[in-house]
Amino acid sequence: xxxxxxxxxxxxxxxxxxxxxxxxxxxxxxxxxxxxxxxxxxxxxxxxxxxxxxxxxxxxxxxxxxxxxxxxxxxxxxxxxxxxxxxxxxxxxxxxxxxxxxxxxxxxxxxxxxxxxxxxxxxxxxxxxxxxxxxxxxxxxxxxxxxxxxxxxxxxxxxxxxxxxxxxxxxxxxxxxxxxxxxxxxxxxxxxxxxxxxxxxxxxxxxxxxxxxxxxxxxxxxxxxxxxxxxxxxxxxxxxxxxxxxxxxxxxxxxxxxxxxxxxxxxxxxxxxxxxxxxxxxxxxxxxxxxxxxxxxxxxxxxxxxxxxxxxxxxxxxxxxxxxxxxxxxxx
Length: 332
Prior knowledge:
Pathway: Sphingolipid metabolism; Lipid metabolism; sphingolipid metabolism. This protein is of the alpha/beta class.
């Protein structure tokens, strides 16, 4: 009986692997494709542009700082694989005025053709205790991290649906999967992208348009360096429990997953575990992916409880240290 059950299980798994490719989307061909990258003047965005350019894509870089855009353009152009490739730079704030964003996307499409892939990398992080953050900080992060992805996506989606082809990437964060101390403003804006992506994927899947949500860990970028200047001690100690990734690594994974039409894009063992734990009602690209999530959920939840316990311990220690410091100051 046990042998029969084992044989059935093995046969079922093999069947899943055989059927899985049949329901997976057809990979997007990057050679000659038009890829728009917001926040493309530095960090992950610039590395995504370089990775796509290496694979033969035409690039539109969108960011606010024109000087940084031109510097990024020169760097990206070093990675061309043919003399027909073009890097177009557009300076605009993608979070302020939808009509302006729509106009610059139209300009890009007139010059380089319809957008085949949009990668929303524009964003920023500000951390601090909930009561210490200005209300304007919540508004600012929601505007840039959420609406800054809504506006460009809204500007390209109609053409993608008409052409029955397209990829849209939302670059969230592991803080968009797990709320952490000090990230009440930042996490909320990144969690919002997940809800947008799930709803949008359900709408556009029949048109062969696929959405990817990327959840990078702390990445060695100018944005992280700026964030670390004001990061609370508790947040910094929690962040130090995982390694810092290189933006090139993150970019390669994002591009790979976007090409394949994968809904989730994560990096490393921690990223894989978080994606499995927080999958919820998220769409899957293959039956195999769904089966892996079902099988690993219990084990990953157990591991996650240990992580949460260690985070709580860090916060308690910091609280005790501050209390001792305040007591010492009073008695001095």
